[in-house]
Amino acid sequence: MRGVYPQNDGSALVRGSVPVAALNRAMAWDLPEELAATVAGLLIHEAAAIPARGQMFAFYDLRFEVLRKNRNRITILRVTPQHAPGAPQPRPAASRPPRPTRRAVEELRIAA
After folding, report:
1. For 29-36, what is the mean pLDDT?
2. Please, are residues 75 and 16 in contact by the beta-carbon 8 Å criterion?
3. How many domains would you assign to the chain?
4. Looking at residue 42, which CATH number applies to its domain?
5. pTM recorded for the entire structure
6. What residues are paired with 65 via a beta bridge?
């Protein structure tokens, strides 16, 4: 299947424009075809946002990692069955680190 590149570890590199039905046929997976036309569309639907490059999500017993984006368009993903050996763990979305307390800031000043 054009746009789906199976890897030796059981994962697949997938173009975001690949139809969900085509990915299901190529990899013998069972992703819902009624929620979105393309793999990128399905990821955006499930994430309820446009993910950042490097962000990972787990749903439908698969892990989706955004490898390449062009503006708001997801162009390449790595899709890995969760049961595959060495399957990567999803990383949380980027967020602001907690602000240090005033006491911690003062302790840093004293130590410096």
Report:
1. 89
2. yes
3. 1
4. 3.30.465.10
5. 0.69
6. 56, 78
Hey, CA dihedral for 16, 43, 71, 94, is it positive or negative? negative
Q: Residue 15 sits in which domain range? A: 4-111
- In angstroms, the Cα distances linking 70 to 3, 37, 43, 55, 107 are 17, 19, 15, 15, 44
How many Å apart are CA 57 and CA 15, to the nearest integer?
Answer: 16
Q: Which residues of 22-52 are buried (b: 16+ CB within 10 A; e: fewer)?
A: bbeebbeeebeeeebebbbbbbbebbeeebe
β partners of residue 40: none
Return the number of other C-beta atoms located less than 10 Å from residue 59's C-beta: 16
> How is residue 43 written in tokens?
């990821």
Cα separation of the two ends of the chain: 60
pLDDT digits (tens, 9 = 90+) for 69-85: 888 889 899 999 887 55
